[in-house]
Design goal:
Elements lengths: L1 E14 L2 E13 L15 E4 L2 E4 L4 E3 L11 E3 H10 L14 E2 L14 E5 L17 E6 L8 E6 L9 E3 L1 E2 L1
Amino acid sequence: MTAYQTSYPSYTVHTGQVSYTSYVSYTVDVGQGSGSGRDNDDGGGYEQFGTSLAKDGGTYWLCENLPEEDPCRVILKMHADAQVQAAPPRPVGRGRRGYPKHHSNLERNSLSVSGDLLEFPLLPDTFDIWVPGTPPGPVRAVYEKDFPHGRHYDVIYHDPTKRGPLDFTKATIR
């Protein structure tokens, strides 16, 4: 078993001309799989979803209607947690493109968060957050504005089986 340690910026505080960034560390143990012999476990630490594989990293968000070969189909919860905690607590300015941006839940997904909501891209297989100038991908975290610590969130994704502009579907946690 190998242990990897990573840090990501949790939040930045600006005081006059000086900025302080708080870093949160995670240690992740990467093993050789559970070897449980369950029917859905190949013994190599992977759980099968048809032909797609999810790393044996514990709890994950499943974006069921994304193509099985899409790496965004499965987002490990530990990665999503880290990215959401590091995501900005306020939307980009009016008239500007980018993230986070307001989320109105026009699709009426059954979200566990409410209030003034923001959406922010989630990336697969990383603790790092999305940065401007890079593709956001199809998956978004939805969380309450100005609630940075202990932030609760849901995961939604652009569902390719839906037509039109209202195409978000809530991911399921497993």
